[in-house]
Amino acid sequence: MARYLLVETRSSQAEFVIPDHLAHADPVVERFECWARSQLAKGFSLAEAASAAGTSERTLARRLQSVLGKTPLSYFQDLRVEHAVHLLRTGNASVDQVAAQVGYSDGVTLRALLRRKLGRGVRELRRGG
Length: 129
Known about the structure:
Layout: H1 14-23, H2 27-39, H3 46-53, H4 57-68, H5 72-90, H6 95-101, H7 107-118, H8 122-126
Helix pairs in contact: 2-3, 2-5, 3-4, 6-7
């Protein structure tokens, strides 16, 4: 009798689900995330982030560390990676164009970051791996 192994070709979104749920459980973190998503291409400023979240820089940093176990900058970078992955999987933009949309100066930087954070390259991501 032949046995077959089913392989899921779509990648899991689990890496983004838990942080997303936790972020929405805290209003300060939720306001920060909303601001951060609107600023991906512009860049990160802790002072602006804290102001948008309605708190001090120190309180924002403590809340993110408590809720997500990350610094505001680290979470901001994770959001950039998440959005870049989405753009690569769903569109036809070049790596340089995607990099610009998420605030990186060039595709080389984005490629290195994706490899370091996800262990996968652009071709793999575009294939859905």
